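Q: I have 299 residues here and want to know how they pack in 3D. Can you give me a structure?
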Amino acid sequence: MFRSIPQLEAYYWVARLGSFRAAAERLGMTQPSISVRIRDLEAEAGGALFSRSARGVRMTNKGRAMFDHVERVMSLLGDLEGHVRDVGPLRGLLRLGAPDSFALRCLPGFVAILEKLHPELNLAITVDNSRVLNQKLDEGLLDLAILAQPDVMRSIRLELLGRQRLSWVASAQMELPRRALTPTDIKQFLILTNPSPSPTFSILMDWFATHGLVPIKVSTCSSLTSIKNVVVAGTGIGVLPTCVVETELAEHTLVELDVQPKLPDQEVFIAYPRGIPARGVLKTLDIVRASIADTGFVL
């Protein structure tokens, strides 16, 4: 019984993604091939593992009873592959999700290392806020993601990369009190940051809520570079990862404001699916760590 790992792999991804089509795309197969594997596995299991309807695919009671066991098998196989498999240079496609701060500070180094070590590997990069990337990873649309303050999901493994500081910044030309600023002081200004549901936005609004305050005006943008440009022009105050404004602070086009109490740091993780990782994920973990070294991306 259950002699075929490919059958279990097909079952695992159909269960995870809720779709034969999505599982086929995830495994680089045709949908009929997935159906054959599931049919053969159901024959060995002695009953249907999935029920199919216009609403999609759901696990039967028998299918649900198997899931935790199969997930452990997939995880163990992934660990085994990572320890003993050496395939040389990677090939194929790696789907990476990253926040804008990683793209600005670390992506050039990451791509350079990847191109040197694995010139035949293609890279598909999605830059978005961590909440969106978290969901895409859970849906099987990414192989690997850099996430700040990720949601804990049983389907995803998390490895801590470090902490990321957030700074209040303003144009050097902006007239501000020359003293430590309080939440009451800050709430009067136009504040620019990433949009909801980004971790930065959540941290900002929770910070105000802790002090019983609501900022008068918060404008958002998904591009950190655009936010920087608006803040440099003196239009408002920005809440940004410190690592992306280091140049502007050194050149004195921006100044870091002394706001008390400080905003909490963001924890940044590298995340990838449990079970058997997509080809290249395990080797890519070390390349991600190398690419963030000495960039100030995390502390």
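Q: Anything worth noting?
A: The longest strand covers residues 156-164. The domain at 92-162+267-292 is CATH 3.40.190.10 (D-Maltodextrin-Binding Protein; domain 2).
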